[in-house]
Amino acid sequence: MVTKHLSGLVLTASVAAVSAYVLWGDSVKTWKKGKLRPSLDNLGNTCFLNCITQSLASVDMFYLWLQDTLSQTSETVAIEISPSIRESYPMTSALYEVLTVLRKNTDGSQSTSLAKVHSAMADHGWGTLFAQEDAYEAFQVLIEALESEAKMIHKSFSAFPVQGKYIVSFECSECRNQSTKKIEVFDCINLYPSNKNNSLHNSLNSLLASHFATQTVNEVECETCTEELGFVKKCDFVKHIHIARAPLCLTVQISRTTWENGIMSKKQSACVIPC
User: Fold this and answer.
1) Residue 187: inside a domain, yes or no?
2) Are strands 164-172 and 182-186 parallel, antiparallel or unpaired?
3) 28 φ, ψ (degrees, to nearest 5)
4) pLDDT category, 26, cuts 50, 70, 90?
5) CA 270 to each of CA 104, 108, 194, 202: distance values in angstroms, whole numbers, following the listed order
6) One domain, residues 127 and 190
7) How far apart are CA 261 and CA 257, in angstroms?
8) Burial class (CB in 10 A: 0-12, 13-18, 19+), 5
């Protein structure tokens, strides 16, 4: 998971600020005796969810959002998670409690469990708790559950910290007329590295630049050209994608598998991520 505070940062389709993204986490200095982070128990093939949770624990904006959300349920300044809160908002309360433990410095002997988070995911439709699963799919279920509970807590729920908005538009290559712009909500950007030469030629910069690069859509009827010429005119359209509203926490998925002739294979090329 790659994240960065994006408040006040204007992103364009060219993703000029890509190099500013960093991999969040503890610096090497924190990994000394007496300053280790607690670990997460593996409840049986749960490493896919453990890695997501450990990543979220290091993202201040995400933790503060959970804290602010739960503060709406308490009449006191301190957050008190009562049994009724746990029952009404199982995902939010369980994840907040786990992240609170994971964000503490310890001597390295402390560990915690995602049992309550697993249970909350089951309440929100996650069927297989202890089988090997895809981390991205688990992340989507977790995010949907948190958003659902947040809307119940916040009377005026607005933006989720990982959610942003795209503006998608199509431009006729002949008359340059733009179709109606469409707003799309996203909580994760899916990136697809190349598999050429199995070398270190992929970077986060290049993958994001490729994602936001213009695309050509062939043989689309252009209403403007059709009206001017008096007959149906099909043209090539250029698709543009821009970020209209940047999320507080940008999350990307770098796909490591590909399908060819019905057979799945793992991409061997590496991806360089700034840190």
Assistant:
1) yes
2) antiparallel
3) -60, -30
4) very low
5) 32, 31, 9, 6
6) no
7) 13
8) middle
Q: Do residue 115 and residue 170 come from a single domain?
A: no
Q: Among all chains, which residue has been given the structure tokens 């995902």? A: 91
Minimum mean pLDDT among 79-83, 85-89, 169-173, 227-231: which range? 79-83
Pairing mode of beta strands 202-203, 271-272? parallel
Note whether residue 82 is domain-resident.
Answer: yes
On whether both 121 and 206 belong to a single domain, the answer is no
CA distances, 170 to each of 16, 78, 222, 225, 228 (Å)? 22, 50, 10, 14, 19
Residues 128 and 205 both lie in one domain: no
pTM, to two decimals: 0.72
28: pLDDT strictly greater than 70 = no
In this prediction, residue 98 carries a pLDDT of 92
Q: Do 109 and 171 fall into the same domain?
A: no
2, 204 contact by CB (below 8 A): yes
Q: Are 128 and 225 in the same domain?
A: no
Number of domains, the chain? 2
Residue 230, in any domain of the structure: yes
Mean of the pLDDT values across residues 41-61?
85
Q: Which amino acid is at 62?
A: F
Residue type for position 203: S
pLDDT tier at 238, thresholds 50, 70, 90: very high
Residue 139 has pLDDT above 60, yes or no: yes
Q: For residue 47, what are the domain limits? A: 32-153
Give me the pLDDT at residue 275, please.
62
Rounded CA separation 120/134 (Å): 18
Contact 82, 70 (CB under 8 A): no
Asked if residue 20 belongs to a domain, the reply is: no
CA separation (Å) from 43 to 49, 91, 183?
10, 18, 40
